[in-house]
Amino acid sequence: MKKILLPTLTILIISCSKENTVVNNSDQLDVSPKITYDTVPIDSFGSGATSEAVMAKINAVAIKREKDSLDKIAKIEQEKLDKEKAKLEAEKAKETKNETKPDVKTEPETNP
Fold first, then answer.
1. How confident is the model at residue 107, as a pLDDT?
2. Can you give the pLDDT at residue 7?
3. Distance from CA of residue 42 to its chain's centroid?
4. How far apart are CA 14 and CA 37, in angstroms?
5. Could you list the pLDDT tens digit for every one of the 112 residues in the chain?
6. CA dist., res. 82 & res. 90, Å (int)
7. Max alpha carbon distance in the chain (Å)?
8. What angle do CA 57, 62, 65 make, to 5 degrees?
9. Alpha-carbon distance 74 to 80, whole Å?
């Protein structure tokens, strides 16, 4: 048993203790990607800042879109109200039509 256990343990220790050596040469450094970060801040008065005229145009477009959407909502609400009014008028017309129908009474005929 010791004959089997000792070589197995030795092989296990040797295989687990292998270290990969890291070689820092110029070939490996060229292969790795270079990471660049944009850390330049943009000044509010600098060349990358948005001018007041551009902001005014952006705001005008936003206001126009808001008005258009509000107009669409108002139009939809008005159409709903018109449909409800038409429905009520149709119901009133049916009621008045039913009420104004004269009852036809037949008078007994007299034979002379």
1. 59
2. 87
3. 30
4. 43
5. 778 888 888 887 887 765 666 556 665 655 666 777 777 666 666 666 667 778 888 889 999 999 999 999 999 999 999 999 999 999 988 888 877 665 555 556 666 5
6. 12
7. 146
8. 125
9. 10
CB 51 within 8 A of CB 44: no
Phi first, then psi, for residue 82 (nearest 5°) are: -65, -40
DSSP 14-61: HHHT--PPPP--HHHHHHSPPP----PPPPTTSTTSPPHHHHHHHHHH
How many angstroms separate the CA atoms of 108 and 112, rounded?
13
* CA 34/CA 42 separation, integer angstroms: 24
